[in-house]
Amino acid sequence: MARIRRLFLLLLITLGLCAGAAEVSAFSADVLAISIQPSGDADITFGYTLTWLERAGVLFNIADPAREMASVMEGQFHRPVTVHEVSPDAMSLTVPGFATVTLVSGGTLYLTPSMDFRSAEQVLRQYWFAPLVNPDFSPRITTVTFPDGQGTSWYDEGVIPSVEHLVR
Questions:
Q1: Is this structure's pTM higher than 0.85?
Q2: Does residue 12 form part of some domain?
């Protein structure tokens, strides 16, 4: 059965290439919303766009974007990631201890880690089809929101810096 799935994916990719595309556009990161909880855990919603080839791969269990995203995040943050929900265009997950929480005299200080989406591109390069795709892992918009509702946003950035925020 796995061999049939792989052959089907190969056929879909070949058809896509024959349709006149020298390079298949690929995965596109749309929205990354990170909500920091009082404990420092992060609830993350990640919206993305998949091509019809990628959707077929997911449908036939050839590729698993949730597993790949969780793996990249676990590697970057050195923490387990819990995937709660996955759909064809979004996923939600939790990263425990995402932000460092420090009690200070003026309140609670939160420090988020920096995020480098280029590591996802490095993971993709390991696959045989990497030369055929042109993914965009930099979210169109990334937001980090703290327990007091304050937050910061970035647009089309491949690297998000660490953020420090005091909640009084």
A1: no
A2: no
